[in-house]
Design a protein that fits this description.
Layout (H helix, E strand, L loop, with lengths): L4 E5 L4 H12 L3 E6 L11 H8 L5 E5 L5 H11 L3 E4 L6 H6 L1 H26 L4 E7 L22 H20 L3 E6 L2 E2 L8 H13 L6 E3 L5 E2 L2 E2 H12 L6 E4 L5 E2 H11 L8 E3 L17 H7 L7 H24 L10
Parallel strand pairs: 1-2, 1-4, 2-3, 4-5, 5-6, 6-11, 7-10, 8-13
Antiparallel strand pairs: 9-12
Helix pairs in contact: 1-8, 3-5, 5-6, 7-9, 7-11, 9-11
Bound molecules: NADP nicotinamide-adenine-dinucleotide phosphate (NAP) and ligand F7E.
Ligand F7E binds next to helix 4 and helix 7.
């Protein structure tokens, strides 16, 4: 019988949780690396624990950190995975300007530590472990061609983009040097109701729904002229899995091949709750970045042709899905407030 055992770093994040859902639905034994935190950081995985009690397949969590190479080797030795998905990162571009050294340690060197641990265990145990690296369209930064494809040169514009570029090339290097089955997915922005609340799409859908219910009156944003190629995270994790099912490892752009401004995202979101975004948005230079990525637009022809992948959720459907989900949250918050419970909100 074929063993399908996946290890996911970053399992508590947006993509980690969708990937765990996908792999469990395919019958995988799934393991995830979680960081110790003073408060719960497994909110996005809660439904899987409920499924487990209802007889679903197990998800096993291991304490670990990509800053700690020894623990990564120990976890890999214990789990003996057939596939590793490296999704762990300090993934916020604006924050990477405030914490450049930390971002390099986790996002760049964390990948190297994981590759080294994989190589050691693979050599010692004779296993073959397929590896997925979460590369990013942020590597294109100040873009040298439009649209961006696998052959487009990188020009990262943030400590995060630079760290991801290192992680990308070290993965390619280990593939070429040691024959690893290691693939990089160059994923363009992807969002969902599980998106972190400080990324712009979720910040907008949270604000519009809270404004609609009278819980907030203003949305402070930075550069609303920036253009992004936004897809749905649930579609994108399928591309990650497909990459590891190929005979040969390779690198693929994953994108919708459409671009929209932050302003358009605002207009659609507020219109969905019957409001005009111009009445509520204020530009706050605090959210400008020292160097900006003005335009991202992918060309995912290779993924569509070789992997047979395509996005299923359109831009409009993505906005609708996020607004619907955040309306429910805002309603719950309103109810709690009515009952006198306090709630802390993050709005960066
Ligand atoms: P996310 O929601 O920010 O999740 C990041 C995950 O990494 C979280 O589980 C986080 O754990 C974990 N993590 C952070 N530092 C860690 C450390 N030192 N050791 C172990 N785990 C650590 O990001 P995402 O949107 O799911 O993205 C997944 C990956 O794809 C990231 O590598 C991101 O950079 C990359 N990417 C994302 C996009 C996108 O548009 N979403 C596009 C291209 C590439 P905590 O929960 O404890 O914080
Ligand atoms: O910003 C502008 C901001 O933080 C998008 C990460 O998942 O995708 C993500 O990085 C745009 C930028 O995502 C605000 O200046 C305006 O131009 O949602 P974001 P990002 O920087 O594109 C890539 C592919 C990744 O790999 C990353 O991990 O929106 N913007 N006003 C704002 N952005 C934020 N966060 N907050 C604002 O108030």
């Amino acid at each position: 019988m074929v063993r399908n055992i996946a290890l996911i770093t970053g399992v508590t994040g947006q993509d980690g949780s969708y990937l765990a859902d996908l792999l469990l639905s395919k019958g995988y034994e799934v393991h995830g690396v979680v960081r110790r935190s003073s408060s719960f950081n497994t909110r996005r995985l809660e439904h899987l624990y409920h499924d487990r009690h209802a007889g679903g397949r197990p998800l096993t969590l291991h304490y670990g950190d990509v800053a700690d190479g020894n623990c990564l080797a120990r976890i890999i030795r214990e789990v003996r995975p057939t596939e590793i998905y490296n999704l762990a990162a300090q993934s916020h571009v604006r924050v990477s300007f405030d914490q450049p050294t930390y971002t390099a340690d986790v996002t760049a060197l964390g990948t190297l530590r994981l590759l080294e641990a994989l190589r050691d265990v693979q050599d010692a145990c004779g296993d073959t472990i397929r590896f997925y690296q979460a590369s990013s369209s942020e590597m294109y930064g100040k873009v040298v061609e439009i649209p961006q494809k696998e052959t487009t040169p990188f020009h990262p514009r943030s400590p995060y983009g630079v760290a991801k570029t290192y992680a990308h090339w070290i993965t390619v290097n280990y593939r070429e040097s040691y024959g690893l089955h290691a693939s990089c997915g160059i994923l363009f922005n992807h969002e969902s109701p599980r998106r972190g609340e400080t990324f712009v799409t979720r910040k907008i859908t949270r604000a519009a729904t809270r404004i609609k219910l009278g819980l907030q009156d203003t949305l402070f944003l930075g550069n609303i002229d920036a253009k992004r190629d936004w897809g749905f995270a649930g579609d994108y994790v399928e591309a990650m899995w497909l990459m590891l099912q190929q005979e040969e490892p390779d690198d693929y752009v994953v994108s919708t091949d459409e671009t929209h401004t932050v302003r358009e995202f605002c207009e659609k979101t507020f219109a969905q709750v019957g409001l005009d975004c111009d009445d509520f948005i204020k530009i706050d230079p605090r959210y400008f970045r020292p160097a900006e990525v003005d335009l991202l637009l992918g060309d995912s022809t290779k993924a569509r042709t070789k992997l047979g992948w395509k996005p299923r959720v359109s831009f409009n459907q993505l906005v609708e899905m996020m607004v619907e989900s955040d309306l429910v949250l805002a309603e719950q918050e309103k109810l709690l407030r009515g009952e006198g419970h306090a709630m802390v909100l993050v709005n960066d």
